[in-house]
Amino acid sequence: MNRLLFPLLACALPLAAQQNQMTLHADKAVDIIPKEIYGQFAEHLGSCIYGGIWVGPESSIPNTDGYRNDVLTALKDLHIPVLRWPGGCFADEYHWMDGIGPRENRPKMVNNNWGGTVEDNSFGTHEFLNLCEILGCEPYVSGNVGSGTVEELAKWVEYMTSDGDSPMANLRRKNGRDKAWKVKYLGVGNESWGCGGDMRAEYYSDVFRRYAVYCRNYDGNRLYKIATGASDYDYNWTEVLMKNAGTKMNGISLHYYTVSGWSGSKGSATKFTDDDYYWTLGKCLEIEPVIRKHIAIMDKYDPKRRVSLMVDEWGTWWDVEPQTNPGHLFQQNTMRDAFVAALSLNVFHKYTSRVKMTNIAQVVNVLQSMILTKGPDMVLTPTYYVFQMYAPHQNATFIPFDLQCDKMVVRGDRVVPAISATASKAADGSLCISLANVCLDKAQKITVDLDGIAAKKVEGKVLKSKYITDHNTFDDPNRVEPAAFDGARIVKGKLEVDLPAMSIVTLHLN
Ligand code: AHR
């Protein structure tokens, strides 16, 4: 971690101790948490696609039509709602026509963004869209704007979604797929201010408008066009885009990584101090003011909140694992990452009147992934388990709440609550409450006022481990995994919970 950037970094200092109390406001529960908040991202990067998802039908690794069975099962269990593909930076060098037709005829390319690896294009449009059908998730296709043409992207949309007697629909049929796919989410470029073309906001606004005209709705498919958005604190990008192209888009993206800086070491994923951990929480939670500021700008141009904010890349970014290709971004995933996932999801739940989708980066073997693979072996990460435990929040109604709890000072001056929480109500009336005790060494009791919601039964799961650096490896795949939780009870209409130190708990009440 680059301490020079954060000279005030200090141990977490507890501020005044008080009784932990959460008060639900069920009468103010209005916003649905769209399932797309739990979106994933798969880029042609390292072993995310090749080896991680796709091994090809001839592989000795058990697979179904080329998709590895273990990963398919794990992803199905996660109920992933939407999958973004093929990048990332890769998207702006990807020429989709290289990835259709008989695999043996597909041209190879060099993946210039990610380690100079040879890409054989064996995973292309059909392989991706069929995967989405198998997983029951929406595809989110990112188009090539940086090095492609309007014609190329317009034809890709036609190829995927037209059912007519049109040249691209007929080409798709020739390649074995008769019926058009439904493709809702279309990204018009990626990071167009950087790897996606190094454009200025004013210029990209016009480029977006032009692409938006020719990416058409065919045969009942309605595209949801997402403009390349800002990174982190670049509020000017959002301002210019909303001003110049706000009426032409359905969504605009935002990328925010929990990272110590873009040059030099980002710190080890597994070897870090308690200070590093608390620093990470502070950086992770900084996403909240960032989201608020982007939303405030969007509100100026779009007060009715027609345009969505899509946080289509987020998560931790550490140094790659030793002896792996630095361009492949293969990183381990500890309890610290699990906290980043839980705290980030807790933030996203609060802004769903504007934030309609988020996509953690990335699904397999890259950055803060759900799954790690090595040859035929697979492990599920602590982050996977957070997504699994949080799945009941998908499409439930967010319940606003007040939370009084101990606070800590991290990164010199940032105040981090010792408990992070979220709550939602499902269509069947059941409640789901998630609580994270971020303290490494202090168990905490919390009382939850259910605001009159009658609940008789509570059951739950807890994710915890001995050390914050604990993680799952191919030799020790089950070190961190959820267990049944018996520390919660309903007493006189209130929920009382004993949260172990360093734990993430999800409770179901009915
Ligand atoms: O997720 C890895 C990379 O991070 C993506 O390709 C790019 O969009 C971002 O900079």
In short:
The chain is α/β, with parallel strands linked by helices and 510 residues long. The chain has helices spanning 69-78, 125-135, 150-161, 167-174, 201-214, 235-245, 274-285, 287-301, 335-350, 382-390, and strands spanning 13-14, 20-24, 39-41, 63-64, 67-68, 82-85, 109-111, 117-119, 138-143, 185-188, 224-231, 251-258, 308-316, 355-361, 371-374, 377-380, 397-398, 401-404, 407-410, 414-417, 419-425, 431-437, 444-449, 458-464, 483-485, 488-491, 494-499, 503-509.
Question: How would you describe the overall organization of this protein?
Answer:
This protein has 510 residues and is of the alpha/beta class. The chain has two domains: 134 residues, Golgi alpha-mannosidase II (Immunoglobulin-like, Sandwich); 361 residues, TIM Barrel (Alpha-Beta Barrel). It has ten helices and 28 strands. It is globular and about 70 Å long. The N terminus is likely disordered. Alpha-L-arabinofuranose (AHR) binds next to loops.
